[in-house]
Each structure stands twice: as C-alpha cells, then as structure tokens.
UniProtKB/TrEMBL annotation:
Pathway: Purine metabolism; 7-cyano-7-deazaguanine biosynthesis. It holds the Pfam family QueC. It comes from Thioflexithrix psekupsensis. It catalyses: 7-carboxy-7-carbaguanine + NH4(+) + 2 ATP = 7-cyano-7-carbaguanine + 2 AMP + 2 diphosphate + 2 H(+). The lineage of its organism: Bacteria, Pseudomonadati, Pseudomonadota, Gammaproteobacteria, Thiotrichales. This is 7-cyano-7-deazaguanine synthase. GO terms for biological process: tRNA queuosine(34) biosynthetic process.
Amino acid sequence: MNSSILRKKAVILLSGGLDSATILAMAQQQDYDCYTLSFNYGQRHCAEIAAAQRIAEHFAVCDHKVIHLNLDCIGGSALTDAGIAVPITGLTSEIPVTYVPARNTVFLALALGWAEVLGARDIFIGVNAMDYSGYPDCRPAFIRQFEQLANVATKAGVMGESFHIHAPLLHWHKHEIIRHGVQLGVNYALTVSCYQANEQGEACGQCDACRLRRDGFAQAQVVDPTRYV
C-alpha cells in the first residue's frame, strides 16, 4: 500500500488573520499534512490574501489555493459593499453589518469539496464564539450542523468515511489564542485582521477586528506587531 495514503491530511481555511494562522500551527503540531485554502471573495481589500500567502509559505504547507468568488455581487455586508460603512463604534448586541451572508457556509462547502478530492477527512476553521462580532456562522451549532451535512452530502461520507470539522478556537478568548500561538511559534506580524486595511496591510485601529486584536495582545501581555495606519 502506498504509504502516502496513510498520512493524515487536513484542509485549513486560511484567511490571513490571527485565528487562522493559529489553527494552521495547531494542525501542523498534530502531524497533519496541511493544505490551505483562501478566498478572494470581493472583500474590501486584498491585504489579507497576501497575508495568507505569507503564512502558507512560512509554514511550508503542502499546497495553498486561492479561490475567486464574487460575493460582492450580492453585497449585504460592509465587507463586500463599499456603500456600507465599516462600524468603528465598538461591538454591540446586534449582528453587525460586517457579517457576510453565508460566507462560512460557502467557504466550508468548497473546503469540503477539496478535502474529498485530496482524500482528507479533516477541515480546520478558525471561528470563535467568545471574542467575536456575533456572527451566526461562528457558533457551535453551525459547526455541528455543517459536519452532519458533510457526512450526508459527499460520496466519502455516505460510504462511511466521516468528515470532521475542527474549530479548536471556538471557546477561546483572543488572549488565550495569542498566548497559545506564541508557544507554537506563530509570527503574528505576518497576519492581517483589519476589516479595512490599506494595500500595504496597515490596520485602521478602529474597526471591531482591530479592537479585538489589540485587546487580545494587551491581555496576553504580548507585544502587538500590528502595523497601524
């Protein structure tokens, strides 16, 4: 039997942000052969795509793909519609306008397709239900339901080769993620989290993503390597 068949493979959703870089490091620590997947989906900037490429190269992943989508065609989010301003007033109890309709559902579906082609049965996603912006597709219920879907919607799944959706950061606070990532050797200077970073990858320092990131580094007592405008 070909020994390569016995190696564990995983598809990692790699946005270029802090959380996704951390889960990539976690997957490698667990001895997975990592295949990273990013999306140019019509978001406000491409700095995170460049960041994802840097991170993939840093971790020497097996393969890194960037899939082009046009979620900006349907809009409905401050991240895909230039006519909707990115909020800078801080988190509220409401789902913010930075929520992108069906984004994680679409991303996981494409990751599932690639995983089936690769013979991988593990998919990692860096969603977080603690320090987050209230997105419905970052909750435990969503992850559970998608995993069930994966196992009835694929040839591999119905033949008994179960897929597993790993969301290891689901119940972690941002400072816990950062501390763990530092222990794993993650270089957070490579990452971009800002919703409206400029072409050089410099962060605005005012959006929800920037606030969560900055507070996380402060609480972790780790120097924040973010480049701000």
